[in-house]
Amino acid sequence: MKKKVQYPVVLTIVTLLASIGVSSTYLTTKEKIREKESEVRTRALFTVLPGIDETPEEISPPNTKNQDKIYKGVNGEGELIGYAASGEAQGYSSRINVMVGLDSNLEKILGIDIISQRETPGLGTKMVEKESSDTLLSVLMSFFGKTSGVDHGKIQQLPEFNMHQGKEGNNSGNGAATELRPWFQEQFKDKTYNQLVVSKVADKEKITAITGATISTNAAVKAVQNAIEKIKIELQEYTWQIK
């Protein structure tokens, strides 16, 4: 009789402990996910609002969801750089989430940063792929440096080395290397809303589609449009019409 009574008690205790463990893991993981999302969002804001001096200010009403928040960015002198918001759209195999920066006149795109996507590897994922900055010279440097102890300092003094470095790296004149950005995302820079038209052939006035990934390309464009629309609506630009 005692054993029959003990089994339910033991089962209840085990279930309770398991529930506590699962809850603790969920809360810990949830907080880490939030921190990661915040980190990604902040990095994206600095990417799409070049020239800002500090983390952009949220200008949306209280309790606005993260995906609907609008941000205002200023430079070191307090001058307005522009506004930013995130947008999303359904791609070929995933939701595509993108952060977009718009200039202070709400006309031209300052930059975009695709925050998340799970499109087809080798096709849709090209929207986040960076072109390699490796040159024949840099590859040779890496190879001989490992095998024969070549003096990298002397090689860096060669005109050929400086020429290649100037092309891909130090363009700012302050010694800091310029981050290489995905070509697909870079083509959005300085475009207006009405120029967000997908073209299957290279066209500087439109958005050139990723070969073999037209659906993903269209989704990325729609996500950018979605972000711009949020900014326009939030700032109450009644004279602006979505065409």
Name the descriptors.
7 strands, 243 residues, disordered C terminus, electron transport, alpha+beta, 6 helices, translocase, two-stranded parallel sheet, 2 domains, 5-stranded antiparallel beta sheet, oxidoreductase activity, globular, single chain
Question: Short summary of the structure?
Answer:
It contains six helices and seven strands, in the order αβββββααααββα. With 243 residues, the chain is α+β, with helices and mostly antiparallel strands.
Question: What do you see in this structure?
Answer:
The chain is an alpha+beta fold and 243 residues long. It has 2 domains: 47-130 and 181-234, no CATH class; 132-178, no CATH class. The protein contains 6 helices and 7 strands, in the order H-E-E-E-E-E-H-H-H-H-E-E-H. The protein has helices at 2-48, 136-147, 152-155, 159-168, 183-186, 214-234, and strands at 57-58, 70-74, 80-90, 95-103, 109-116, 198-199, 207-208. A 5-stranded antiparallel β-sheet has the order 1-2-3-4-5. The chain has a two-stranded parallel ribbon with strand order 6-7. Strand 4 (95-103) and strand 5 form a beta hairpin. The longest helix has 47 residues, at 2-48. It is globular. The protein starts with a helix and ends in a 9-residue tail after the last helix.
